[in-house]
Write a structure and sequence with these properties.
Elements lengths: L1 H24 L12 E10 L11 E14 L2 E19 L2 E19 L6 E18 L2 E19 L4 E9 L2 E10 L2
Antiparallel strand pairs: 1-2, 1-8, 2-3, 3-4, 4-5, 5-6, 6-7, 7-8
Length: 186
């Protein structure tokens, strides 16, 4: 957990410094997702439960990358990938006080992005599909599963500079709710 915080803090500070420098050199407005754009978002939040397994207030994390491919009316359809997981420790399940559940998900995702003509705002909704690798159990009894995975999400990003912003997502995806940072790569 401490390593994750250090890495996220370093990324945040670095992106703020480079994003501010880029914004000062360019007078272009900060815009949401467009055809040809690429974004990367990193988030943490409440993890999702899978396959009816008890997760005892899971912690979740997700990394997602998307590329703007098609204009669809006033918005853009993206395609990309995501990877992340939901993790819980020491849950109380069926009399076992040391129940643990961990699920790692790798998936493709697609979303429709729309900016509402507000400088820097990007809202979206989408679907994801992939595989979930699950490890769960208690004491010395653990099981592993590989499950098909399907998710749905809505989210919003706000870009402070052309290359950096904040992001929030909710739904039944790798996380149920997350907040994080978003980088516009292209």
């Amino acid at each position: 957990m401490t390593k994750t915080r250090i890495i996220l803090s370093a990324l945040l500070i670095g992106s703020l410094l480079t994003g501010t420098a880029k914004a000062q050199k360019s007078a272009q407005p900060v815009t949401p997702m467009k055809v040809g754009s690429a974004t990367l978002n990193l988030g943490i939040g409440v993890g999702a439960e899978y396959d009816g397994r008890y997760y005892s207030n899971p912690f979740g994390t997700k990394i997602a990358a998307e590329w703007g491919l098609w204009q669809a009316g006033p918005g853009v359809i993206t395609l990309g990938g995501e990877i992340g997981g939901s993790f819980s420790n020491n849950g109380d399940w069926e009399g076992h006080h040391d129940y643990k559940a961990r699920t790692i998900v790798t998936a493709v995702r697609s979303a429709w992005h729309y900016g509402w003509k507000v400088k820097g705002l990007d809202t979206y909704g989408g679907l994801s599909a992939g595989l979930a690798f699950q490890h769960y159990g208690y004491s010395d009894h653990y099981d592993n599963n590989v499950l098909p995975y399907f998710g749905g999400f809505v989210g919003a990003s706000y870009f402070f500079t052309q290359g950096f912003g904040v992001n929030a997502e909710a739904g039944y995806d790798i996380t149920q709710f997350q907040i994080g940072v978003v980088f516009k790569l292209k």
